[in-house]
Amino acid sequence: MTSIDEDFKKAVEDVKTLTKRPTDEELLEIYALFKQATEGDNTTARPSMFNLKAKYKWECWTKLKGTSSDQAKQDYVKKVQELLAKYQ
To answer: Where in the numbering of this chain does the ACB domain appear (predicted)?
Structure first.
């Protein structure tokens, strides 16, 4: 396992320790980075416009199209570190 994989795995666990809830925008960002890091480009069908939560998540992930898994992992780790400093 590479260093970025280890850092990513730790960040996935660390984010669960937040004592306060991040903003919806921050949650969407870490969701999208996680999905891009673990699954790659979004190839799922666009959700119904009536399902706003799924629509926002889909759009946020789709914006990361073309981002490599390693880059998404690095960005995720950086974002989680920001959230830990802000919400713990």
So the answer is: 4-88
Under 8 Å between Cβ of 28 and 54: no
Judge whether 42 and 61 are in contact, CB under 8 Å.
yes
Place of tokens 């921050």: 26
All structural domains of the chain with their residue ranges: 3-87
Determine the CATH number of domain 3-87. Answer: 1.20.80.10
The alpha-helical segments, DSSP class H, found in 15-68 are 24-39, 52-62
Q: What is the pLDDT of residues 27-74, one digit of tens each?
A: 999 999 999 999 999 999 999 999 999 999 999 999 999 999 999 999
